[in-house]
Design goal:
79% helix; mainly alpha; 3 helices; elongated; Helix Hairpins; 62 residues
Length: 62
């Protein structure tokens, strides 16, 4: 997910995307806790996507 793609979306779509990413992050954490996750780099990717989304939301709030 690129920041330019996110900037083209409206605020409601961004909030929905943020909720989906937070759910995915929770799911990945549970998979780590139960030692089911093979690709642990996904956690970092999701975390960075959440940060990217929050940055775009802050830009739109100004």
């Amino acid at each position: 997910m690129k920041a330019t793609e996110l900037r083209s979306k409206n605020t409601e779509e961004l909030h929905n995307e943020l909720i989906a990413l937070r759910r995915e992050q929770f799911s990945l954490r549970m998979q780590i806790a139960t030692q089911q996750l093979k690709k642990v780099d996904q956690v970092g990717k999701v975390r960075r996507n959440i940060a990217r989304l929050n940055t775009v939301l802050a830009e739109k709030a100004k």
